[in-house]
């Protein structure tokens, strides 16, 4: 386990050498590069694979020691699976809804889905329909949606 005694910051300008800077929307990696240049530890988070590639390239070009251009090769990781929650009891299974949505202009055609918030999903269909005629036909809450 890693032991950290400094502070966690969202801005490089609010940090001190050795602190960790957290960049929640890493994008083009400017915060990560600035943190690296100022001897801050950093964590960059983004949903884009392009952002992952970009941070590697920018660090190599802008922050790396010319004698060690591959310094970051094994320090930058991409994780595609969501982290496990640690605030739930043992054996906790997330509950989601299996739902069926219909539209009167398309009889015998249904949209079937799984979502933790079926109302939000229905609303997203409604916003694409000027007459807002989508209708929830069926929903059931279940922790067994992956099984």
Structure description:
This protein is α/β, with parallel strands linked by helices. Helix content is 22%, strand content 21%. It has helices at residues 30-37, 49-63, 118-127; strands spanning 8-9, 20-23, 41-44, 96-102, 110-115, 135-142.
Can you summarize this structure?
By secondary structure, the chain is an alpha/beta fold. It is built from three helices and six strands; from the N terminus they run ββαβαββαβ.
Descriptive terms for the model:
147 residues; alpha/beta; 3-stranded antiparallel β-sheet; 3 helices
Task: State mean pLDDT (0 to 100 scale).
Answer: 80
Strand arrangement in the largest pleated sheet:
1-2-3
The rough form would be described as elongated
Q: Could you tell me the strand content as a percent range?
A: 15-25%
Largest pleated sheet: 3 strands, parallel
Helix content: 10-25%
Radius of gyration computed on alpha carbons: 23 Å
Give the tally of β-strands. Answer: 6
Number of helices: 3
Question: Could you state the order of secondary-structure elements as H and E?
Answer: EEHEHEEHE
- Assign the structural class, choosing from mainly alpha, mainly beta, alpha/beta, alpha+beta, or little secondary structure: alpha/beta
Distance between the termini: 33 Å
Poorly predicted parts: none
């Amino acid at each position: 386990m890693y032991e950290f005694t400094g502070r966690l910051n969202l801005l490089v300008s609010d940090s001190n050498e050795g602190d960790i800077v957290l960049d929640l929307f890493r994008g083009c990696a400017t915060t990560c590069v600035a943190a690296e240049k100022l001897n801050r530890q950093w964590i960059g988070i983004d949903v884009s694979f392009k952002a992952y590639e970009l941070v590697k390239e920018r660090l190599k070009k802008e922050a790396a020691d010319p004698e060690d251009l591959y310094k970051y090769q094994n320090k930058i990781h991409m994780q595609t699976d969501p982290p496990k929650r640690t605030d739930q009891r043992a054996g906790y299974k997330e509950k989601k809804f299996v739902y069926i949505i219909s539209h009167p202009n398309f009889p015998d055609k249904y949209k079937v889905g799984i979502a933790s918030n079926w109302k939000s999903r229905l609303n997203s269909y409604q916003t694409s329909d000027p007459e807002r005629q989508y209708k929830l036909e069926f929903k059931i809450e279940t922790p067994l949606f992956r099984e």
